[in-house]
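#struct-help
A.M.: can someone run this one for me? Single chain, 457 residues.
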Amino acid sequence: MSQLETADPAALDAERAVAIERRSRERGEPGWLTEQRMAAWERAAALPIPTNTTEGWRRTDLRELQLDGLLARRDGRQPPAEEAAEPMELGDLAGMLALVDGVSAERQLAPELERRGVLLMPLEQAVRERPELVEPYLGRSVRGEDSKFVSLAAALWENGVFLYVPRGVGIELPIVGRTVMGSGAACFFRTLVVVEEGADVTYVDDHWSEPEVGEALASGAVEIYAAQAARVRYANLQQWSTQTWHFNRLRAVSGRDARVDWLVVAVGGRLHRVEIEGALEGRGSETEMVGLIFGDGRQHFDHQTLQDHLGNDTRSDLNFKAALAGQSSSNYTGLIRVDQQALRTDSNLENRNLLLSDYSRAESDPRLEILNSDVVRCAHGATVGPLDPETIYYIQTRGLPRDEAQRLVVEAFFEPVLQRIPVEAIRKSVWRTVQRKLGRQVSEGDGPMGADAWQTG
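D.P.: on it. Structure tokens below:
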């Protein structure tokens, strides 16, 4: 065991605070960001790790998380060397930014988008070169006063992506930001997406690590700001190794007549906890949230969603699907909140859970908080149960064995969601993971058929 792992916790916290400030200044970060990091570290050091008596954490067990040990391993890690990015072809992408352990490994943006003022760069670079576009937004909607893990990410992030789309710019092809954890221990990341009035973009946040990374922590936050009449399609894909503890908070703030569509896919990780919040501030703003969770082994998934109706004539729709094999488990808590001043809200929430073994389990808790009576619709529903035996029997009568019939039903359950992944290579990667969890042998060419469900416009 290293000296870092046996040090006095209070002394270690103080050492880390000094290291955070020193590293921020070495990077040439502006004073406001250094102060933001220091305040976040103070919160992180003061907040305890949640237990099953902590509000919102009753069904998620963190007793086996050795946070101090993972942070100590990160403290002792040598920073990776800067490497020049290899030239690459964008193909069916408008842009690509890959970060490996905090270092930019690949970055490319279509030249015509650069000419029109679109920015895609590491967040660390953006705070130095374009602070007027970053400071008004970073940390404004995701602050982390109530979360140790969000605060840790705010203090320690090194994997950061900044995407800015100017007024009126429409981007037909998707942009991908990929965060890769190559060395294990701990990875802290931030994503900031700012989309100005009337602009249109599809952005994919892909989180990935090799299976042999070992036990690791991944913690981050995503902030999306959609101005008046902007259109944002945001996909968050989690493919960490099965020894990774994953925590993330995602929040989008929508202006008048803006629309933000979410796709959240979780197939990796040992324990996965994600909070997703759509703040419909502007009149006529809309959001759609779609989720796919597939667990096996002893994986645990915890999703907390908030459809927050703050403006008049807003609309939201949520559909989260989970399939659970082995001894895996899922906890889902979803809230539709309608503010006292938010008139004529139309909102719906559905959570569907398939139990594929006698040992898997799912808990679902959909809620409504309606503070005025002028509502078009606020509805919620949830189901938890095994595969429908009549459906399985019907497929078997067509000559297929029971195992194959069960696989077909699960594939049909997931395929409409998988079709929404806007990048073919990533869609096929997730599809192969689903197939492996179903016990299939898969090849590189395998993938769901059909056209992409997300189209611009």
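A.M.: thanks! Residues 9-26 form the longest helix (18 residues).
D.P.: also worth noting: The mean pLDDT is 89.
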